[in-house]
Specification:
about 140 residues, Aldehyde Oxidoreductase, domain 3
Length: about 140
Amino acid sequence: MGFSRIVREPIDPGKLVGEATAGRERVGGTVAFIGIVRRFSRGKEVSKLYYEVYEEMAEDVLEEIRLECLEKFGLIDAFIVHRVGELKVGEVSLVVIALDERRAKAFKAAAWMVDEVKRRAPIWKKEYYTDGTAQWISGH
């Protein structure tokens, strides 16, 4: 039932959490990490971000991470959605959802998934600053 996706349209975290938890009577703990484009980074004011992606490979890697997480933590389910393309300050770039009977595993699993997405997914971030400069940023 879970999934991993690369999307180009805005992400609605509330809708995703609703879809993830619908009809899940065993779920007692749902942890959602929501990555949002922030205004300031590395001491500069950000005007926008651009996420470049090797889409076919990234979709495979996100799904590998999701499946590894299910096995590693024994979760009920997990979801990963990453937006690519141009994003404005305040927009959602990443949503990771971990579902389990209890919260402890869900918290650990969500953090693990975020770290693995940043470490392994072929998705690159370029920050554009209000001073006219730009910089590619590494995941970790």
